[in-house]
Amino acid sequence: MPFVDPFTSDVMDHFSRQTIRECSNTSDLVTSQFDFKTHRYRLHIHKHLAEPLLRVKRNASIECFYMKLLTNPEAIDDSKHKEPDKHHLTNHESMPKNADFVITKCYLHKSKKRYEKIQYNAMSLIQDRLTEEQVRDFVEEQKVHPKPSVFIMGLDSTSRINLRRSMPLVYQYVSRPGWYEMQGYNKVGDNTFPNLVAFLTGNSEAGVESVCDVREAGCLDKLPFIWKRFKAANYTTAFAEDCTQIDTFNYLKPGFQKQPTDYYLRPMLSALEKAFPVTKDYGYAYCVGRKLSFSYVWDFGKQFIERFLGRSPMFSFLWSNSFTHDYFEAATALDKLFRKYLDTFEGAGLFKRSIVILMSDHGHRYNTLRQAASGYYEERMPMMFIYVPPWFRKKYPHLVKNLKVNRNRLTSNYDMHMTLQHLLQLNVTSPQDFPTEHQAKACPTCQSLFFKVPLNRTCEMAGIEEKWCCCQPTVTVTKAPYVANIVKAIIRQMNEHLKLRKIDHLCAEYKLKKLNKADQKSILASGLRPADKDEHVYIIEFETVPSSPTFEATVRWNNRTQKLLPMDVDEISRLSSYKNDANCINIKTAKKYCICKDSITKKS
């Protein structure tokens, strides 16, 4: 894999640092505090903050109320939210143990029936439901067989290259001792879902679909998410993600029918996006009420750490889409805030006992960054940083030595899945020691990164398909006479595919507008060689009409027979945004290549 300079002119000419826009310039009238004596949350009303208003509105008082957002872990329904009962709030009032999320509403009260809204707010309350016996058992076990907590933090669409370019404060933090960057980490799928499914279940998207249809309610609940294994090992588990419109398991899918982890943010955020004003920035929900959508996730994570660090082993998976999903330079606005959260987590003691992972699913897949010279690598090489605490380095120096070696070797999402499996079985001595049910199903040759990865590893050995593989160098052949035939064959195949999928009545036929670039992949000495010496892999970038979308196809072409080998059109990459072109269709894979006929009519 080549070195990629993050600061080349073709990127930096379009790059500008952004500043974060606050959702509110007022302080919270109501805040929560955990009472360690009663193990309950108390809500505090800061009436002094309203004194300037009270001086103007004479003979008035402040009255606040709270509402519990109740969820049923056995039957989650994100589409329906009953208006919860309103309870009068007194200062320092203890919250009931079943209040996981609350909305607070404060009013200026002038007469019996006159209320003037001052401030609405919402907060999660991560309740500590552990018994003293469970805590005692954990503390005693830690003395003999210490378990690392696992805390995973994800920022969508962030390549290891763009992290350096856009988030220098965060990059500085993860460059400290104890952090290991997987510089050869290569994605295995197109978008978020296949990459996170590989990471969390060890299976591919196709493998999952052979088990059940992810579009059907209940399918996701059947999958062997790694948090289930951690829960079975007595870990306390949490999962949070922002931007409910596009979150990983609900975008064009029904989501989980049962609560997947002990603590789960989506029911609250889904309710708040309906109850509070939502302002959009960078493409998606930015402010939800008075608070950043992003902050709900990381405040949730902060509470989780504060409740259970030292009381239970923790497994947490936090994911954010709001800043980074569509705009690569939006990460610059997030840099200071995310660094502040990292410092807060450190102050809470997270890094003393925990394996911490900072990761992404992929880099930017379309528009400016993807169409830059480095775009091919930007898309395929997401950031992956692993932090190992001092006690783990001391107890398992041989494992950490292997991790250090693996920093510069080819690795994938399936290897990360096996690394998580390894943390539950630290007594194993080789990759072959894992039972079959705990192997990455889609990649039997993948392994924990605490074991040394082979130096001559190929993409096939890491479960990375040819299309996503960054290992082979390329030669540009755009002007070669046979390239025109390749791109014509690709477009012919795309048009046939629309008919086969029976969506040609919705999607316009493609015609070639422009060939941008053609690269031929080299065959490495350690890689598999095609049976026919005239067969080669080509990466073709081209534009079509109508609407001028830019596509990239990775195909096999035989120069002797002048034929395109079987091609899966669903695997084609769209390098320009499809947001305004594909609203007529709800098939996830087809959205990236369908140019809706009605969108052409609207534009004209």
Describe this structure in words.
- By secondary structure, this protein is α+β, with helices and mostly antiparallel strands.
- Helix content is 29%, strand content 22%.
- Strand 23 and strand 24 (563-564) form a beta hairpin.
- Helix 6 runs parallel beside helix 18 (413-423).
- The radius of gyration is 26 Å and the shape is globular.
Q: In one word, what is the shape?
A: globular
Rg from alpha-carbon coordinates = 26 Å
Structural class: alpha+beta
The tally of strands reads 25
| Straight-line N-to-C gap | 44 Å
Query: How would you state the average pLDDT, rounded?
Result: 93
Query: What's the main sheet like?
Result: 7 strands, mixed
Strand content: 15-25%
The side-by-side strand order for the widest beta sheet comes to 9-18-17-8-16-11-12
Q: What percentage of residues falls in helices of 4 or more residues?
A: 25-40%
- Low-pLDDT runs of 5+ residues are none
Q: How many DSSP H or I helices?
A: 21
Concise summary:
With 604 residues, the chain is of the alpha+beta class.
Record keyword descriptors for this entry.
single chain, about 600 residues, alpha+beta, seven-stranded mixed sheet, about 30% helix
Give the helix/strand layout.
Elements: H1 9-12, E1 30-35, E2 40-45, H2 51-56, E3 61-68, E4 86-89, E5 93-94, E6 101-109, E7 115-124, H3 132-144, E8 149-155, H4 160-166, H5 168-173, E9 179-181, E10 185-186, H6 192-201, H7 205-211, H8 219-222, H9 226-232, E11 236-241, E12 263-264, H10 266-275, E13 278-281, E14 284-288, E15 291-292, H11 293-308, E16 314-320, H12 331-347, H13 350-353, E17 354-359, H14 367-370, H15 375-380, E18 384-387, H16 390-395, H17 397-405, E19 411-412, H18 413-423, E20 474-476, H19 483-500, E21 511-521, E22 535-545, E23 550-558, E24 563-564, E25 573-574, H20 588-591, H21 597-603
Parallel strand pairs: 8-16, 8-17, 10-19, 11-12, 11-16
Antiparallel strand pairs: 1-2, 2-5, 3-4, 3-6, 6-7, 9-18, 13-14, 14-15, 17-18, 20-21, 21-22, 22-23, 23-24, 23-25
